[in-house]
Design a protein that fits this description.
Elements lengths: L4 E5 L4 H11 L6 E5 L5 E5 L7 E5 L6 H17 L4 E6 L18 H12 L3 E5 L14 E4 L2 H8 L7 E5 L9 H7 L3 E8 L6 E7 L6 E9 L3 H12 L4 E9 L5 H6 L5 E5 L12 E4 L2 H13 L9
Parallel strand pairs: 1-4, 4-5, 5-6, 6-7, 8-9, 8-11, 11-12, 12-13, 13-14
Antiparallel strand pairs: 2-3, 9-10
Helix pairs in contact: 1-8, 4-5
Length: 312
């Protein structure tokens, strides 16, 4: 066991950090970020952290690059302030979709993020639903990946689900939705999408499973531009679905995604608070807090008990 738990927050999602501290019954650590006119950044830790077990929370949201640099500088400041152990708590991991070399002469940027965190001085990482499980292998320090599926399923099960069918927007998502289908005891349908040589856009071609007369519940790990989700919803409706709902772990909602979702036929979208949404999210978007889950994980890491038990 390390020293006392100390929790600090970056500027990306302070509301989430406060929720974590409320669940822990601890005050949020004091730190200061100064941005100079030449766009350089200074981070000062204002609390004593010598030999403490420090958790720094920073999610990846716009401005992404500023958030990454702030996280690295803060971890470095904590390291040289003699923190006993530093855990980078990253609800939404930056560049998680850049996890492989899928075209010539590109960076596997998720691996670079892992290397930067280690170089800055992080001793371990706590995150939520990585886009690809191999990202954990990019690290040479311990990584605890929390799973939001149990909480999402618990929330969904409070409503009537008798007429629902879980839908994967493409074959790649088919394996991931099993953790939802098993917990909710619902049937599964999979949209078969094909990418043709003369067109870069994948086109929905067939539906494996049955949605006619049912409510299609589209599950994904994240919603970015909303294009895949809206296309999947329209395809399900064309195949006779009575209604469409959606749920995802990370609500990225880049560009005009929220406007498009609020203007389409999808009835509701459930996401966690791994990323800030605010009032602009609109009436269709519902947020489920995973801050208590992170608080329990922080306690488990500090006490040296099993994080896996949180998923039971």
């Amino acid at each position: 066991m390390q020293g006392n738990i100390k929790v600090f927050s970056g500027s990306a999602h302070p509301t989430f950090s406060r929720r974590v501290c409320e669940s822990l019954g601890l005050p949020l650590g004091k730190s200061k970020v100064v941005r100079f006119s030449n766009q350089n950044m200074l981070v000062q830790i204002e609390d004593n952290v010598r030999e403490d077990d420090v958790f720094f929370i920073q999610s990846s949201c716009p401005p992404v690059s500023d958030g990454i640099l702030e996280m690295l500088i803060t971890i470095d400041a904590l390291k040289y302030a003699s923190a006993g152990r530093i855990t980078a708590v990253i609800p939404y991991f930056p560049y998680s979709r850049s996890d492989k070399k899928d075209r010539p002469r590109v960076s596997i940027t998720a691996r670079l993020m892992a290397q930067l965190l280690e170089t800055a001085g992080a001793d371990r990482v706590l995150t939520l639903d990585l886009h690809a499980p191999q990202i954990q292998g990019f690290f040479r320090i311990p990584v605890d990946e929390l799973i939001a599926a149990p909480l999402i399923c618990q929330h969904l099960s409070r409503g009537a689900l008798a007429d629902h069918v879980i839908v994967a927007s493409d074959i790649g998502e088919a394996k991931d939705i099993e953790r939802y289908a098993g917990r909710l005891d619902l049937p599964v349908a999979i949209i078969d999408k094909r990418r043709y040589a003369d067109n870069d856009k994948a086109v929905a071609r067939e539906l494996v499973g049955e949605v006619a007369g049912k409510t299609a519940l589209i599950i994904d790990d994240e919603i970015s531009s909303g294009g895949t989700l809206i296309e999947a919803a329209q395809f399900c409706l064309s195949r006779g679905a009575r209604a469409v709902r959606a749920a995802a772990v990370h609500g990225v909602f880049s560009g005009e995604a929220l406007t498009r979702i609020n203007n389409c036929a999808i009835a509701s979208v459930l996401v966690t608070d791994s990323l800030p949404q605010g009032e602009a999210a609109g009436p269709k978007v519902e947020q489920l807090s995973v801050a208590p889950l992170f608080a329990r994980a922080i306690e488990a890491i500090h006490d040296g008990t099993s994080v896996f038990e949180l998923f039971r």
